Amino acid sequence: MRLDKFICKSTELTRTEAKKVLKSGEVRVNGEVAKNAAMQVHENNTITIDGQVLIARGSRYYILHKVVDSICSNIDEVYPSVLNFIEVDKAFDLHIAGRLDADTTGLVLITDDGRWSHNVISPKKQCQKTYRVWLRNEINDEKLADLVTKFEHGLQLQGEDSLTRPAILMRVEKEDLVDEMSYRSEVLLTITEGKYHQVKRMFAAVGNRVVALHREQIGRITLGDLAPGEWRALTAVEIAQFL
């Protein structure tokens, strides 16, 4: 992780205060003075401030049921940051592993472990993310079969050089419908990447429009009984998926 972040995880210093300490020349990495806040450090490095060895606190991992009109950002903007919902110390030192749009609800993973979040969001890791999608136009069974094939083979999105990675599209089982009237316009889509507005753009590419979007699952992690706006710490088993 970045050296300034390591200092924050090892002390009570803020990021601004950590940078001031670095500029003063008080920080050493493996015996050498280090002033670059962006310097990457690792577990086997010895990092000191005025000779005092720093030991980073353990990383934190949370799940949140995101509500509409909140944003996956570390600052409040037009809408509040989802980090306002996480009632822990230094919540704004955390970051979101896989962002959702302001109008999208559902599962958000939050951590301060950069390598862990990389394993969640990197397309190379093939982590599946499942979304419940409500569409403007209904899809009959024949059309659905055609779309399943297209999504599996990849779609050409406007402005992209390559096709989307293979995706899984399926009808929501009737017993799982939020509203039985939406049977032909409610589907589940599973993808392994996260291009800008990807789900919305994929359906736009096949002549439909997403009117509501909800992320249900990342890897084997689901929302379970979490109500909108609620959060909890991830279990050791859930965390281990992406280590």
From TrEMBL:
<feature type="domain" description="RNA-binding S4">
    <location>
        <begin position="1"/>
        <end position="63"/>
    </location>
</feature>
<keyword id="KW-0694">RNA-binding</keyword>
<dbReference type="InterPro" id="IPR002942">
    <property type="entry name" value="S4_RNA-bd"/>
</dbReference>
<dbReference type="InterPro" id="IPR020094">
    <property type="entry name" value="TruA/RsuA/RluB/E/F_N"/>
</dbReference>
<dbReference type="GO" id="GO:0003723">
    <property type="term" value="F:RNA binding"/>
</dbReference>
<dbReference type="InterPro" id="IPR042092">
    <property type="entry name" value="PsdUridine_s_RsuA/RluB/E/F_cat"/>
</dbReference>
<dbReference type="Pfam" id="PF01479">
    <property type="entry name" value="S4"/>
</dbReference>
<dbReference type="InterPro" id="IPR050343">
    <property type="entry name" value="RsuA_PseudoU_synthase"/>
</dbReference>
<dbReference type="InterPro" id="IPR020103">
    <property type="entry name" value="PsdUridine_synth_cat_dom_sf"/>
</dbReference>
<dbReference type="InterPro" id="IPR018496">
    <property type="entry name" value="PsdUridine_synth_RsuA/RluB_CS"/>
</dbReference>
<protein>
    <recommendedName>
        <fullName>Pseudouridine synthase</fullName>
        <ecNumber>5.4.99.-</ecNumber>
    </recommendedName>
</protein>
<dbReference type="InterPro" id="IPR036986">
    <property type="entry name" value="S4_RNA-bd_sf"/>
</dbReference>
<dbReference type="InterPro" id="IPR006145">
    <property type="entry name" value="PsdUridine_synth_RsuA/RluA"/>
</dbReference>
<dbReference type="Pfam" id="PF00849">
    <property type="entry name" value="PseudoU_synth_2"/>
</dbReference>
<keyword id="KW-0413">Isomerase</keyword>
<dbReference type="InterPro" id="IPR000748">
    <property type="entry name" value="PsdUridine_synth_RsuA/RluB/E/F"/>
</dbReference>
<dbReference type="GO" id="GO:0000455">
    <property type="term" value="P:enzyme-directed rRNA pseudouridine synthesis"/>
</dbReference>
<comment type="function">
    <text>Responsible for synthesis of pseudouridine from uracil-516 in 16S ribosomal RNA.</text>
</comment>
<comment type="similarity">
    <text>Belongs to the pseudouridine synthase RsuA family.</text>
</comment>
<dbReference type="GO" id="GO:0160136">
    <property type="term" value="F:16S rRNA pseudouridine(516) synthase activity"/>
</dbReference>
